[in-house]
């Protein structure tokens, strides 16, 4: 009887939710609010009810632009374009009276972040600023679809309550943070939607194809890009964020279909120590408004049991270190229009309603707590500035005299975060490093953005908790492989500050020595040297690489120097000079005109140790089984940053295609069991290069394509019984979510060409530990005996990583297989290790087979 009753209740629940699949506007909107009938509903503009179909980005934009035209509460501004050239919009919604002097209100609000003036402000009369961001992950669409309702409600609702809200609040709505991903997902689920909705989880509607739509065009997770700012979507959004300095930011996401609804705070022990305790308390207080709103409509929810606020590169955490409060919402996802779950049929309208209801509860909380939020922002910046005056470190100085491009790119990011940065007035010696005005930058800590500066520069190795939702370290100067020093009061004075940097510029390159009739040379140490070489290859220019050092023109040239003979090229001497001159200027490198091949020291320009290079023709494996993030990071580096054409080859097509047109194959982290190992081996034997990363190297080793071996952890001794409840935390503590480690380079090895310092910080996020090769010439990159530089790692894993290999090379015939357990292109901001990956592409072909033969006892 109980079973029959339970089935009846489940059937009733499913039928109720099923009825909501074709919800009308009344399903979503508050019952006690009247709406202006002259303001069009989403259905009147789009031709369907919200939730009936997944809104495409162009439809979403069309509605937002139309609302801007018909409502005096709304203005809209484009803040950027996605990689696929889709516009990104921010809507400013407030009372018409506020719109009349919006720039004055904006300027006044920003003064809250200026401790010198914020005390003069009357916060009782100031509106709060609330930023609402929707669907940074394209296949988490309930947010962007809820944005339709949010904009309609704020434009059309009538009565004293909405008037008060709009007079006391400036609402900023970003309806689609990830246009490319949102459009990709809408196209998939709408294409696979039938007239009769199918709820079977096995249906293709719920199984989008690789790379899926979570990510942007290059398969990056934009919710990890708030700090690195490597994508146009993020750069445009952050400019608007700092233009307004919001008090509250909401970040609307989705999670697994069998979940319920989550709102922050997350797990208290996993907040970043630099975040103020008051931000957590305010988040808790705001949570009461969400609970009340969700109780009212009967939606299940939870809080403080998962997720965290540690990595500042996330949308809900970045605000916490900028005087605001960030709130993460996670809604169980229907991943389509209606899908069976353990809680009954989960419909798309149901997911949208929860996002809309918590949008309204956020606004209610912001209005009720307006003065608290404004005071929090004012006090945050005052306290930050006061703290900065008390710390021992007074400034950070960083740079790279031998490769100023990397320092420039870090300075560029720092400025986008509204941090003051300067050139040194004159050369500063700190430790063993000379920092010159031409290639170095100083970041004083005594400024309102002090805490964000510390978040970017600190090397933290101790933590309250051993579990992290994302990475545990992201020290920027280490990511860029830059020299940097924390300057104390003893070695820092304000008089050392030179020109204030407002708009960093990539150094301009040049050809030194004019046109040559013999040869040109440029060193590989410059970050964009590979782009110059690729440009030359695209023009059919022949190039050589120096596998030893030499001197000429009063200069020493290092390993990996590129030499371009004038004779035998498909262009005239004048055309070659013009090509090199343009490439040098555009890429910030110095090209040297060599008038003789008779070097003053070292090898000569016609030496057998000057090896011919062939143009890389690259295939990047994609498709099912491949980690799309890692593959996208490789594709973005090659295509977007270095202009290197890359063929994307799906794993299911690999066995059918002719590989002869490629000489480099990139295998990102992933599962490659569908590949023909015999076909791949035969291709490598012909003199080609495979670059494997992450789990790809396990497949290469298991299939006899690499001689690498993995370190095995020692078996733990039998222990006393442990509590079942501690299982997740103890196993989670063995995960390397992302930390930074020190390695040493063999600077004479082709894979290390262009590096000038033996120490190289590497980012690691897995537990693949390589045994060093028994071949003494085959260990180009090794972890040190004390490798941890920043981040969390368990004691057990730290023992494993010590003295392990960071790169391994295997020779097969005349070809090479290069194995990298770590990802050298992580999130596009690990500039320091990009060269390892690019060297594998350009110089894998010249690695001596004798240094890469199978290990022999």
TrEMBL record:
Cofactor (UniProt): Zn(2+)
GO CC annotation, single: extracellular space
Any matching Pfam family: Peptidase_M14
Assigned keywords, A-Z: Carboxypeptidase, Hydrolase, Metalloprotease, Protease, Signal, Zinc
Gene Ontology MF terms in the entry: metallocarboxypeptidase activity; zinc ion binding
InterPro entries, per database record: Class_I_gatase-like, Peptidase_M14
Domain Peptidase M14: 53-352
GO biological process: proteolysis
Active site, per annotation: 330
Leader sequence segment: 1-21
PANTHER family per the UniProt record, alphabetical: PROTEASE FAMILY M14 CARBOXYPEPTIDASE A,B, SLL0236 PROTEIN
Family that this chain belongs to: Belongs to the peptidase M14 family.
Protein name per its UniProtKB record: Zinc carboxypeptidase
Annotated source species: Pontibacter fetidus
Classification of source organism: Bacteria, Pseudomonadati, Bacteroidota, Cytophagia, Cytophagales
């Amino acid at each position: 009887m109980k079973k029959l009753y339970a089935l009846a209740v489940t059937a009733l629940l499913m039928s109720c939710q099923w009825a909501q699949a074709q919800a009308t506007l009344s399903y979503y909107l508050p019952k006690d609010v009247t709406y202006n009938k002259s303001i069009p509903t989403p259905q009147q503009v789009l031709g369907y009810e919200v939730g009936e179909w997944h809104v495409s980005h162009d439809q979403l934009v069309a509605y937002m632009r139309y609302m801007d035209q018909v409502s005096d509460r709304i203005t809209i501004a484009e803040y950027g374009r996605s990689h696929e050239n889709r516009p990104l919009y921010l809507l400013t919604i407030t009372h018409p009276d506020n719109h009349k002097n919006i720039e004055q209100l904006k300027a006044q609000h920003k003064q809250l972040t200026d401790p010198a003036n914020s005390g003069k402000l009357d916060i009782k009369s100031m509106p709060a600023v609330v930023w609402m961001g929707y669907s940074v992950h394209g296949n988490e669409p309930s947010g962007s679809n809820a944005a339709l309702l949010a904009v309609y409600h704020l434009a059309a609702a009538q009565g004293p309550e909405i008037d008060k809200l709009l007079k006391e609040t400036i609402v900023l709505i970003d309806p689609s943070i990830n246009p490319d991903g949102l459009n990709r997902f809408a196209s998939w689920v709408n294409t696979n939607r039938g007239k009769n909705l199918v709820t079977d989880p096995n249906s293709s509607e719920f199984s989008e194809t690789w790379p899926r739509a979570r990510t942007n065009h290059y398969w990056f997770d934009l919710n990890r890009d708030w700090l690195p700012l490597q994508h146009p979507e993020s750069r445009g959004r952050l400019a608007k964020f700092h233009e307004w300095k919001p008090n509250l930011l909401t970040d609307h996401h989705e999670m697994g279909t069998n979940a319920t609804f989550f709102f922050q705070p997350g797990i208290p022990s996993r907040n970043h120590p630099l975040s103020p305790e008051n931000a957590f308390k305010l988040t808790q207080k705001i949570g009461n408004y969400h609970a009340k709103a969700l109780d009212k409509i009967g939606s299940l929810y939870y809080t403080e049991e998962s997720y965290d606020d540690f990595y500042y590169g996330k949308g809900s955490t970045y605000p916490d270190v900028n005087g605001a409060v960030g709130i993460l919402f996670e809604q169980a996802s229907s991943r389509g229009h209606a899908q069976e779950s353990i809680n009954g049929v989960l419909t798309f309208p149901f997911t949208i309603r929860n996002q809309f209801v918590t949008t309204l509860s956020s606004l209610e909380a912001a209005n009720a707590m307006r003065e608290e939020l404004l005071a929090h922002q004012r006090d945050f910046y005052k306290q930050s500035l006061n703290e900065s005056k008390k710390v021992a470190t007074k400034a950070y100085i960083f740079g790279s005299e031998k490769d100023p491009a990397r320092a420039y790119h870090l300075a560029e990011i720092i400025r986008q975060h509204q941090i003051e940065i300067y050139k040194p007035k004159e050369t500063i010696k700190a430790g063993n490093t000379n920092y010159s005005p031409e290639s170095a930058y100083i970041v004083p800590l005594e400024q309102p953005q002090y805490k964000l500066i510390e978040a970017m520069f600190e090397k933290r190795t101790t933590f309250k908790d051993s579990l992290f939702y994302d990475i545990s370290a992201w020290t920027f100067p280490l990511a860029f492989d830059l020299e940097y020093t924390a300057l104390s009061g003893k070695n820092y004075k304000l008089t050392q500050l030179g020109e204030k940097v407002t708009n960093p510029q990539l150094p301009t390159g040049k050809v030194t020595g004019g046109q040559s009739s013999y040869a040109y040379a440029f060193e590989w140490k410059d970050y964009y040297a590979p782009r110059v070489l690729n440009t030359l290859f695209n023009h059919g220019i022949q190039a050589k690489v120096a596998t030893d050092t030499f001197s000429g023109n009063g200069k020493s040239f290092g390993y990996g120097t590129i030499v371009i003979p004038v004779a035998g090229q498909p262009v005239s001497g004048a055309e070659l000079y013009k090509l090199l001159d343009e490439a040098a200027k555009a890429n910030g490198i110095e090209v040297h005109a060599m008038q003789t091949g008779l070097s003053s020291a070292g090898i000569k320009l016609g030496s057998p140790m000057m090896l011919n290079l062939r143009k890389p023709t690259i295939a990047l494996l994609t498709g099912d089984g491949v980690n799309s993030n890692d593959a996208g990071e490789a594709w973005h580096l090659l295509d977007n940053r270095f202009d290197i054409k890359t063929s994307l080859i799906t794993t299911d097509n690999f066995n059918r295609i002719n590989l002869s047109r490629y000489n480099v194959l990139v295998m990102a982290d992933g599962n490659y069991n569908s590949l023909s190992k015999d076909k791949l081996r035969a291709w490598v034997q012909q003199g080609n290069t495979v670059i494997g990363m992450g789990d790809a190297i396990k497949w290469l080793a298991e299939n006899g394509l690499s001689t690498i071996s993995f370190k095995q952890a020692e078996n733990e001794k039998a222990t006393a019984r442990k509590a079942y409840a501690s299982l997740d935390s103890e196993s989670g503590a063995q995960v390397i979510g992302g930390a930074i480690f020190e390695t040493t380079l063999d600077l004479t090895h082709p894979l290390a060409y262009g590096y000038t310092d033996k120490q190289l910080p590497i980012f690691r996020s897995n537990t693949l530990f390589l045994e060093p090769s028994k071949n003494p010439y085959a260990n180009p990159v090794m972890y040190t005996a004390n490798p941890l530089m920043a981040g969390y790692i368990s004691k057990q894993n730290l023992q494993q990583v010590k003295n392990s290999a960071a790169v391994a090379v295997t020779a097969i015939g005349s070809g090479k297989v290069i194995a990298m357990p770590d990802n050298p292109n992580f999130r596009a901001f690990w500039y320091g290790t990009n060269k390892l990956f690019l060297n594998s592409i350009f110089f894998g072909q010249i690695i001596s087979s004798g240094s890469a033969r199978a290990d022999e006892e």
